[in-house]
From TrEMBL:
InterPro entries reported in the protein's UniProt record: CarD-like/TRCF_RID, CarD-like/TRCF_RID_sf, CarD-like_C, CarD-like_regulator, CarD_C
Taxonomy, superkingdom: Bacteria
Protein name: CarD-like/TRCF RNAP-interacting domain-containing protein
Domain CarD-like/TRCF RNAP-interacting residue range list: 2-112
Taxon lineage: Bacteria, Bacillati, Actinomycetota, Actinomycetes, Actinomycetales
Amino acid sequence: MTFEVGETVVYPHHGAAVIEDVSTRMLKGEEKLYLTLRVAQGDLTIQVPAENCEMVGVRDVVDQKGLKEVHEVLMEQNTEEPTNWSRRYKANVEKIATGDIVRVAEVVRDLSRRDNEKGLSAGEKRMLAKARQILISELALARETDEEEATAQLDKVLAESDPTLQAEAEEAAEKVKEAKKAK
């Protein structure tokens, strides 16, 4: 994988990040190439040795084929997940840690449905918010839109797969329309 300043990549646990700098550093007598990444959400800067990028899960933004796969995952009806809270939580942490957008979409789908049906614990609510943030930041980049629009699109797809979420999706879409009119 080659890296250029200004290129957007995806960093596991944080989502979209822009390469701000590619520099060389001396480390234990060896010159190593480092990437400086600025995460799109928040004010976080990460430095990663270029040779370790693949190992830590830094990757390109998902393509159209990947977007289709994410959509299919979000629309899946019958999914099995552990009923035990701690096992479910651990499985979801592992999925997010992979940095794979399809696995993150699974977490968003499953936790959104569980939240709607039974409610979530505080820990799972934080996890859902984090997984949504990661998914939305990448969807916005892949679809070349802003995060508000990506959020509305995600909510619409989730509502299509779970009709009880329909009202929330319509409300989110209306807010996006109003915000665009105000601009």
